[in-house]
Amino acid sequence: MNVIxxxxxxxxxxFSGIVSTVSAGFGAIFIATIVGIVAGxxxxxxxxxxxxxxxxYVDIVRGIPGLVVIFISYYLLGFALQSLGITLDxxxxxxxxxxxxxxxxxxxxxxGAFQALPRGQTDxxxxxxxxxxxxxxxxxxxxxxxxxxxxxxxTATELIKGTTLLSLIGVTELLLTxxxxxxxxxxxxxxxxxxxxxxxxxxxxxxxxxxxxxRKFHYQIA
Amino acid sequence: xxxxxxxxxxxxxxxxxxxxxxxxxxLAVFSLSIGVIIGLFxxxxxxxxxxxxxxxxxxxxxxxxxTPLLILIYISYFGLPLIGITFDREVAFVITLSLCAGAYMLxxxxxxxxxxxPGLIEAGQALGLRRSQIRMTIQLPMMIRNVLPSxxxxxxSLFKDTSLASAxxxxxxxxxxxxxxxxxxxxxxxxxxxxxIYLGTxxxxxxxxxxxxxxxxxxx
Lengths: 222, 220
Hints:
Chain A has nine helices and no strands. Chain A is mainly alpha-helical. By secondary structure, chain B is mostly helical. Chain B has helices spanning about 10, 15-45, 50-65, 70-80, 90-115, 120-125, 130-160, 175-185, 185-215. Classes of the chains: A mainly alpha, B mainly alpha.
């Protein structure tokens, strides 16, 4: 198979493509998860003054295609930072854009999970003499996190897939690497299928891990 | 930061932008329509008694869900011509997006079918209806009403996905923004305008679709 040969021959390029894809993808998943959960908790329980800007942020981001967010981050943020003397490289612009999209998704997922918890959970915490921060961190959050696993997996998969869009602003991740190998005479069909399989593998691994976590932490809310 | 905004560049390109919006909507509607048809057949296949058929449908959704859309677009536009299958860019794009929509619709429709109380199907059998009659007169109409909100939400998501058509030079909205960017370097005006057009269209679509849903909802 000439694809495998050619992937091995240009293993340095392929390897740096994988590094670029994986770092942008998992970096965005990490940022989106941490910031998104906090944002979602503020959306659910925060005071209106703080919750309102987050609501606006989530609603705006979810109404714009991810690719457009990437271009906005690359051109607009890049331009704005340049006038401050900071150069934003394409990979960083892409990571920021993917995180912006991911945060909005995770915030909505978090809000949904908290709102789905029965009210009795909060009441029981109060009856046991807990203050709200304690109820939030040791009663509500652990239950909400378990409920969030399946939709969170979707967001994680979307972010990993979204890294391919970074090729359009010139990040040499896996897809752009494949494009370059094709330009040097590689078979487009085989290369794209090979790269597609790599993404399929990464996403399948994420889903298997999430399913294992779900089984481990799943408990019945009576 | 000193940047002089000049929104005249938008006015000069307004035809292209509106044409791009129209094309994006058209691509989304075509893909959804074909996707719904694929999804209908696929959903009945996914709940059929034949295990091979069910496995095939699981493979279909798994592959589509876990592979980036852009790679699927490149496969159909750049890859398939190498084995003698050539499409126009618009056709290649709509085929790809329809297959994605079909996979999504398959899951939505299957859930909609499984939400129908089994008693209704048994009632049909008790009346002596054939399987095809049960399918057409009980399962299909009930399922359609179950899934309407998911289908209309998905149209909005497909509309956003049409931005990827710019990657194979289909002159939709994102392509127009890129064109203004490279021709005039008016990056702020171009991307702010296009961002707002997407945002406004998404909310307008949501508003219209909610009204249609309310009209079609079953009075209980």
